[in-house]
Amino acid sequence: MSTSRQHAHPPVWQCVHAPVGGTVTSLALGPNDGNDHLALAGTLVGLFRSTDGGASWTPVHKGLRSPFVRCLALSPTITVDGIAAAGTSESGLHLSYDRGLTWQRHEFWSSHPSINAIVFSPVFATDGTIFTATTNQGVYMSRNRGRSWSAADNGLPQAEITALALSPQFAANAMVVAGVSGYGIWKSESGGKDWVEMDVPATSSD
After folding, report:
1. Residue 142 DSSP label
2. Are 92 and 146 in contact, with CB atoms under 8 Å apart?
């Protein structure tokens, strides 16, 4: 029996010729269904939008209060609701309801902290839940598609929240995981109401 086998060619990368926009900080892609080829690119000089899979790009700054885009996220049902989210430095969270064409800034109790991460619930269509991680104000949560926000950081250290993730079974187990600068990984099994530190094995540099 021969042990030789055919090897597929490795993936090939192509430059998409995006407009000059400085350092790219974040990317978000639509579902790529049919003729829908939405893509958003966040940079340190603003936000760019493509509807042809990256072949061409257009700056979309209307309503965006800061050019320093740190993170992006799309609603799981963006083809229906058109909701996209952009987190900026020192100017807070911005939401779009028209697939990234225009933006609206949202307040967290009259403040606009820098945003490090944004995550939509996997069942956003039914629960309308969004979480955001901030540099100095913990975690915020909305249960009404971003119209209003409340703190969701009981038990978390008072430190920068660097990352967020939701369980794919969030509707059943309400699990949220957060990375906290200097304090490791924390989890909530109550949809962000309370947090405990996760037992993560220590690493060695040896």
Report:
1. E
2. no
